[in-house]
Write a structure and sequence with these properties.
Elements lengths: L2 E5 L8 E3 L17 H15 L3 H11 L8 E3 H4 L15 H16 L5 H11 L3 E4 L7 H4 L9 E3 L11 E5 L5 E5 L9 E5 L3 E5 L12 E3 L2 E7 L2 E2 L3 E5 L4 H5 L13 E3 L9 E3 L2 H7 L7 E11 L2 H7 L9 E11 L2 E10 L6 E2 L8 E2 L2 E11 H4 L2 E8 L8 E13 L2 E13 L4 E9 L9 E4 L3 E7 L4
Parallel strand pairs: 5-8
Antiparallel strand pairs: 1-11, 2-7, 3-4, 4-8, 5-6, 6-7, 9-13, 10-11, 12-13, 14-15, 16-21, 16-27, 17-18, 17-22, 19-20, 22-25, 23-24, 26-27
């Protein structure tokens, strides 16, 4: 295993409209192997043609249902050399060779100028996180897909896709006909989707460094963590996106805290184990004296207020939402105040329930029970702000979101007001789900207190009381 220190988608869906009765197998634009949208579109065309074969449909279904990152998808680079049975007359047996074979048929019949091998190399170097997904359009739709009978459309998500403004996405059938699918409302039947994986990051091989660190250490704005690459090839190394979170946040990690306390599971039973920093122990180390008043806060559950609210931040084509939470607070040390942040990452299952053929799907309450922090009132003050983000990957995005609020410290007869402000570095396509301010005196005992950002509700309780 390569080690590295990380610098931190038969019946047509009724919700789609057929654009053109003519075969669209040939490229209508000049090939641009540097452009992600071009690569995704051409790959989608070839894959749509390839899904004419039952064994190809079986393969896509079975591999996507492995949910290697928690959703119904798989990376092309990991599946390209996997075998399909039986072999074709030409001997093509792997996923990539089947696609090449279909590409040659398209080229011969339509005069396409697409160079298959160049397309694949460009995907590996320019679009290494290209994935084949079969998102649930209703609960269990991917698992219920009858591959012997149903030939799905293959859609692609363009690079400039935006949940707030994009109204449709393009899809192809096995004959190359083009359709437009509603970007917000899911179709009635499964669709294969070509898009970018939102849960992984890649590092070019040229930037790999083989050095071991005993523990996480913050150097400027980059969190170094010694981890395994989950996959690597001759071009890239692939890592779970979590390990770059702190680089986006520009957050603080205490080097003095025990390594064993730096990472904990987020409390879910999902096989895709996400990690989140255990910031509670380091926070105790902040104080030279034991705090006089503390709360041990836990976020017990959360839910979107409606399906419309969820659709505002995540399209069906991109699978389940990836929700992250940032806690912003001020820290008093030696009569000076600084703004601190904590980030928690939640698994993507459990936000919706029910539904069949797109009918009756509804919002569900996601059980979390994730420890947040020991609220030291003396040093953290009376108010803390929670910010929720729907992450669409692109860890190295350059966008920033500013979290700010006025915090107060009450000491005897004096009240000190402190302005908290933190710039959160986010991905270019991430969506802010909203914010809420918590007061130390809020009644959070028992089942806890409900808060709302407008789009999302969440409950805070004390450890051991819920």
């Amino acid at each position: 295993m390569k080690y590295f220190i990380l610098f931190l988608f038969v019946l047509l869906a009724t919700s789609c409209n057929r654009n053109n009765d003519d075969v669209q197998l040939s490229s209508e634009i000049i090939p641009n192997y540097e452009d992600k949208t071009f690569l995704a579109k051409e790959f989608a065309k070839i894959l749509a043609f390839a899904t004419e074969d039952t064994d190809m449909r079986d393969f896509i279904k079975q591999v996507s249902l492995k949910k290697f990152d928690g959703d119904n998808n798989f990376l092309f680079v990991q599946a390209e050399d996997e075998s399909l049975n039986p072999q074709t007359k030409s001997g093509a047996s792997t996923f990539k060779d089947r696609l090449r074979e279909k590409s040659q048929v398209i080229t011969k019949s339509s005069g396409s100028e697409i160079d298959f091998d160049k397309l694949i190399t460009s995907i590996k170097t320019k679009y290494p996180l290209l994935q084949i997904a079969v998102p649930d359009v209703y609960d269990g739709s991917t698992e219920d897909w009858n591959t012997d009978e149903y030939k799905p459309l293959v859609a692609f998500v363009p690079e400039d896709f935006d949940e707030k403004t994009t109204k449709s996405i393009t899809a192809f059938d096995i004959d190359g006909n083009e359709y437009e699918l509603d970007a917000k409302n899911p179709p009635e039947n499964p669709v294969i989707v070509i898009n970018e994986n939102e849960r992984l990051v890649t590092i070019p091989k040229s930037k790999a460094v083989d050095t071991r660190l005993a523990c996480g250490v913050l150097l400027e704005t980059v969190l170094f963590v010694y981890i395994d690459a989950i996959y690597y090839n001759e071009y890239q190394e692939y890592y779970d996106d979590f390990f770059a979170v702190d680089a986006r946040l520009k957050s603080t990690v205490q080097p003095s805290s025990p390594c064993a306390n730096q990472f904990i599971y987020d409390g879910s039973n999902n096989n895709n184990k996400k990690y989140t920093p255990d910031t509670r122990s380091p926070q105790r180390a902040y104080n030279s004296n034991p705090p006089s008043v503390t709360r041990d806060d836990v976020i017990t559950k959360a839910k979107f207020v409606s399906m419309d609210a969820l659709k505002q931040v995540e399209s069906w084509a991109n699978g389940a939402p990836e929700v992250e939470m940032v806690v912003t607070y001020t820290l008093k040390q030696n009569n000076t105040y600084s703004t601190q942040t904590i980030r928690k990452i939640f698994t993507d299952d459990g936000w919706t329930k029910g539904g069949f053929l797109g009918i009756g799907r509804s919002i569900d309450t996601k059980i979390l029970n994730v420890p947040v922090l020991y609220w030291d009132k003396d040093n953290f003050g009376n108010l803390i702000k929670y910010t929720f983000i729907e992450s669409d990957g692109n860890t190295w995005g350059t966008d920033e979101y500013t979290v700010s609020y006025a915090n107060t410290y009450k000491e005897e007869n004096n009240t000190t007001t402190v302005q908290a402000s933190a710039k959160i570095k986010i991905g270019d396509c991430d969506d802010i789900i909203g914010e809420a301010v918590l007061n130390y005196n809020d009644p959070v005992i028992g089942e806890g207190k409900r808060y709302s950002t407008g789009l999302l509700e969440f409950w805070i309780a004390l450890q051991g009381t819920y």
